[in-house]
Amino acid sequence: MDPKTILKQYWGYDAFRPLQEEIIRSVLEREDTLALMPTGGGKSLTYQVPGLILDGTCLVVTPLIALMKDQVEGLKQRGILAEAIYTGMTPDHVSTIINKCIYHRVHFLYVSPERLASEHFRGYLRQMPVSMIAVDEAHCISQWGYDFRPSYLRVAEARALFPSVPVLALTATATPEVVEDIQARLKFRKPCVFSTSFRRDNLVYVTREIDDKMAGTRDILLKVPGSAIVYVRSRRRTAEVSDFLNESGVLADFYHAGLSSSQREKKQEEWKEGKTTVIVATNAFGMGIDKADVRVVIHYDIPDSPEAYFQEAGRGGRDGQRAYAVLIYNSVSLATLKSRVSRNFPKKRFIRQVYEDLASFLNIPEGGGEGMSFEFDLERFLVLFRLERSITLSAIEVLSVAGYLELISSRNSLSRVTIIVPRDQLYEVDLKDPLLERLLVFLMRSCAGIFVQEAFVDEEFIAGELHVNPRTLYKAFVALARERIIRYVPANDSLHIFYLMPRFPASYLTFGYDAYEKRKRAFKQRVNTMVDYVEERDKCRQLFLMEYFGKGERERCGVCDTCIKEKKRLTRDERGFVDAEILRLLAPDGMELEELTRAIDFPVDLVIDRVRALLDVRKIELNFTYLRVRDARRKKSKPRGDSEG
User: 284 phi and psi, to 5 degrees?
Assistant: First the structure.
């Protein structure tokens, strides 16, 4: 079947965006393919179209549960068979999905890279008719990328199960070094890279030095109406900035990974629906968020890599209309950025101490723990051992890259429900809401022992069975709990430490050059590049970023702050003309600065620049705001007290 026919049939488009069709045809020719496409550039179609043409199931690897759910829901609405497997689903639900895939009843199966680590799951995978493997956020597989995740190395292991199946790797950001590393890690049979232009001509890049960043953020948001994102680096600051904006008349909310899943979903939906204008968030917000009309993205804190900045800034203006990416900073911001190198790569003796503290906290004896997962209360651990969050997480990341253990974030066990009204009294309850009645009947029929003990429930599965969205189902559970018919404990997020090796004495730990020194050097280079970007005064910001990503473009964007400043510069002839006009107008009796700027038909800031230049060379002089031509014949008076002889 022709790709354009599929595109028209399921998505209603007559033509592909630039490079989409070439990528699709490469996959259909069974070539391993790496596609570099900007955020919002239509990456998903490049595997969804061939996934419908090829016979079997397209395995999609992505780290984002929210994105999995959105993609699966979108495909099902188009009549396409799609499923996702993620942490927190009941074993029965997972088995049902796997059987659908084995018996050719699913076009797309979305999984996390952690799922591929399970030998049990890989056993089922061998039985599936996998047609292709799509790897989203493929830069995460490279140790030299800005967001390396060791779990992504499992993708290569899964790929080995299907050596003849094409792999499509997708990313929005990758330097030339990372492009090579992705292909090597995924064992491409031969190099094959498609890269669209990273230019975003509708996106205006601006950096602004501001002492009071809160007030500066407010002023920008008041000047640029519409939906906005403000990125900050700490959870505490999300609430502080959000509160300040609300007090200043800007409708804002905050978002970070420490909120419950239901809180995050509610805040996200209200922002997407326009009920909240501004979302103040950590970098936990944004990936997989499809909102086209973001008019401004403000970076309150400087990101530590051009990749992170480019991806986050790129969430503005996906509708093709003018949008602004504004990075605000001051001297403290720059100092903080430079200090991140030592904080992200703490001294090795500190890393060894964290390793020891983890084993003590989790009660793991020497030689034990291998292949085991332990629930991890990070906050309690930090308090107990008097450790700082960011530097401790950095130490754990080094341990992860070195292959000793992994920190895994996942949903805890599932939501838990108990029916607390006796069965014989339940039929007398008048709920006055058909959905509540249907939900209660479903629980009674599906959950054995729910009247006497907690039952674990998979809300995604129940929502599908009752044909409602997850948010509506959540409200139904809450309503039943409020009526004191059920006891409801929603699922929450938890951390786990997974030991890849048995616990060693800390003195035995080694950190190879690749795991520590080389990664530290690469991180330092990215930090230095961000410092250069912030302090750049002449080069077009669009071209600065294109050059970093290996794009040989030369045309200035014409709209960033450095380009606007360049446009305002005068030619040599123009400078001569303005200087002559200033001297002519001041020659008789002089005049006030404001009067002078009105008298010359040039922009005020340019006239003031020339006034400063003439003052510097002492051709004119200033008495408060009154300017006049300096009398070159006037001699300096001798300092009092000087005498001859």
Answer: -65, -15
CB under 8 Å to 55, separation ≥6 — which residues? 129, 131
Quickly state the pLDDT bin for 637 (edges 50, 70, 90).
very low
**Three-state secondary-structure class, residue 282:** coil
- List, for residues 33-91, the tens digit of each pLDDT value: 999 987 667 889 999 999 999 999 999 998 877 678 888 988 999 999 999 987 667 77
Q: What is the spatial distance between Cα 67 and Cα 377, in angstroms, rounded to a whole number?
A: 26
Q: What is the pTM of this model?
A: 0.71
Query: Are residue 419 and residue 408 in the same domain, yes or no?
Result: no
416 forms beta bridges with: 456, 489
Q: Which of these, 512, 549, 449, lies nearest to 173 by C-alpha position?
A: 549
What are residue 109's DSSP bridge partners? 59, 83
Tabulate helix, strand, coil % of the chain (nearest 5).
45, 15, 40
By CB atoms closer than 10 A (0-12, 13-18, 19+), residue 224 is middle
Distance from C-alpha of 624 to C-alpha of 171, rounded to nearest angstrom: 58
How far apart, in whole angstroms, are the C-alpha atoms of residue 582 and residue 594? 12
CA nearest neighbour of 389 among 282, 239, 527: 282
Kindly state the percentage of the chain with pLDDT values over 90: 45
286 and 214 housed in the same domain:
yes
pLDDT of residue 403: 86
Dihedral of CA 534/536/542/546: which sign?
negative
Total structural domains within the chain: 5
Is residue 164 located within the same domain as residue 35? Answer: yes
- The residues that bridge with 498 in the sheet, in sequence order, are 373, 406
